[in-house]
């Protein structure tokens, strides 16, 4: 048996010119009003939020709204921010190595064959209602996630089955897996535990999904105090927060700021403590800015442009191949700044990655050859591309693609949308646009993360893979996640990459470094290369 215990004390984040200071940094009434934007009344930012003197309220500027409060339905970085702060998983991740550390579980062990995992819950853990967190709540949450088959449940699909999760006693949970899974412990931080009694009291006709759209049943260090969709979400420190090693924050505001340049200005003016959507130009502009710390770190974060492989003109593989060869990848890279080009569907350098993979690069002669094999041999069609409203980098890439497609006599309609509207468009092939740009940040450093989330057909209907379905690719993904022999597993992922490239479901773009801006008054921050823009606020102080 292998066993792990304990939590390492957090260390300060010493990189990129952090200068630690001891004074608190409080946002003024004027700053809050500036954040809210012109025309927003005090109902948006209630009077209680203006009484900041003597209180430590962290303000995070983000361009992405939080689409849902349901821990077993919502996904994306803004939803991950809420879940990481309002709910608890069995195991968390911390530090630059993304090491597993205790969450609800204070210790765990697994059998030699890798099939049985046993977690001992922290007896101090309580929900916001005051009820203790029990093994029954854990079993209920995992089975609900599997039952709904949404959100992050893909991480354990085919590995954990309903009925294979057992509450041994009030504080002991045992999982018996269908097959060994090398990344099992690494996915545990992304399956969150909800209070069974709260959800079942509000089941309605959809297993509590309607209630959890705008209510929460968590045990995390913060509660949802108030929110206004499209404007801000205010999380208050839970009165019965039980987690050890917390900072001094009284609350956190997730402020919706669509324009990245505005996020940068807010950071410079002291109207926000953290900005999470900054461009390379923003980072350059912040160099040497008083009181500002830049974080520029590599992580497994892919950017690709997904194509509607199931409906409309992009269902033709030759049109997809033509477009893939028309793209000016060097222009995409130059626009990205702190980045490198992708070589196929997996992040460069991850286990199983093939650096010699033959991937499309700009070749207009080849693009025209593929186009000639379609019903649009002379072009003459117009495609639709959406992007996140206010996300300058995606807008630029859309314009690059607009220019590139002119060489094939193909038009491009570009439509900015708010993130919840983009998520809604993924519900069916009929509503999914021809071209859909998406960032995917690995929640765990294993090829299964990107492969399953972005290319397995069970993900259809969600933003990470709205429509792409290929039985050959599905079979390779499923084989890769349960193979324990490293050489055989690597060979499976080599075949996976070749199959995906041949099918051309995506324009493979860039791997961007994570770019965050912080006020230097933020103490206790440590960069973690998974979901790093979904800031975990509990360890932080001002």
Automatic annotation (TrEMBL):
It comes from Salipiger marinus. GO terms for molecular function: peptide transmembrane transporter activity. It is found in: Periplasm. This is Peptide/nickel transport system substrate-binding protein. GO terms for biological process: peptide transport. Coiled coil: none annotated. Its main location: periplasm. GO terms for cellular component: ATP-binding cassette (ABC) transporter complex; outer membrane-bounded periplasmic space. Residues 99-461 form the Solute-binding protein family domain. SUPFAM superfamilies: Periplasmic binding protein-like II. Belongs to the bacterial solute-binding protein 5 family. It comes from the Bacteria.
